[in-house]
Design brief:
Helix content is about 60%, strand content about 10%. With about 240 residues, the chain is α/β, with parallel strands linked by helices. It has a single domain, classed as P-loop containing nucleotide triphosphate hydrolases (Rossmann fold, 3-Layer(aba) Sandwich), CATH 3.40.50.300. α7 links the parallel β4 and β5.
Length: about 240
């Protein structure tokens, strides 16, 4: 089985996928976050400052990395997110405005300014969507969708809002139904989610889930610190 753990921002995908991999010994796969890819793909800019073409650059870069990692993971894995997420992020930003954390008036002004090229951008996103949908259909056997249950983490790196989170989550579910890919929803705390997933897919546990969760939380925190340290180092080098 190739199971994608789906959900929008701050729903716990990364920690859950890590805990599942530790608890079941099923490989975990992912792609680097856009924040990690920024210094490489769009040097000197934040996500808020990226235009449509730069967002496409990031999305396509992340997609190509994800596909390679999925192939290397073999015939069974848990995926932290999916190829659909790369497209959904860009599509939702296109629908809400280039920076969905902006206020309603500023978003309205930006939409007006973008109106001369809306059709062109819409064409780009439609083509991107066609590519990721084909890949999702032939790659993932199932999705596990995480509902929005936790508050948005204000980490200063993700230009999103609650409206944006809801739109992204709805768009993911809408796309899964469109593609007729089997999915379940897994809510509750981390342990409840793990138990629902392993019971549903009949995956044996190799470790106590509480221990797996503890290790996963620690590992994800360490990775976040490393990512930020590397990002700051790259920025300092670029500015020198």
């Amino acid at each position: 089985m190739k199971i994608a753990i789906s959900g929008t921002y701050s729903t716990g995908k990364t920690t859950l996928t890590e805990a599942l991999a530790i608890a079941t010994a099923v490989p975990r796969t992912q792609a680097r976050t856009m924040r990690e890819l920024l210094p490489e793909c769009v040097p000197g800019k934040t996500l808020e400052q990226c235009n449509v073409h730069e967002l496409m650059n990031l999305g396509l870069s992340r997609l190509s990395e994800r596909v390679v990692n999925e192939v290397n993971a073999g015939d069974q894995f848990f995926s932290d997110g999916s190829c659909l997420h790369e497209w959904v992020y860009g599509e939702a930003r296109f629908r809400t405005g280039i920076n969905p954390a902006d206020g309603k008036w500023l978003l309205a002004l930006k939409r007006l300014a973008m109106s001369p090229v809306v059709n062109l951008h819409h064409g780009y996103m439609k083509a991107f969507g066609s590519v990721v949908k084909r890949h999702a259909k032939k790659t993932y056997t199932h999705f596990v969708h995480l509902p929005v249950e936790f508050p948005l983490v204000a980490d200063g790196h993700r230009p999103v809002s609650e409206e944006f989170r809801k739109m992204s989550s709805d768009l993911l579910l809408e796309t899964l139904r469109e593609l007729d890919i089997p999915y379940i929803e897994a809510g509750g705390n981390m342990k409840e989610r793990i138990m629902k997933i392993v019971d549903y897919f009949d995956i044996p546990l190799r470790m106590d889930p509480d221990i797996a969760i503890e290790r996963a939380v620690s590992k994800v925190k360490e990775q976040a610190i490393e990512i930020e340290s590397h990002r700051q180092s790259v920025l300092a080098t670029q500015q020198a």
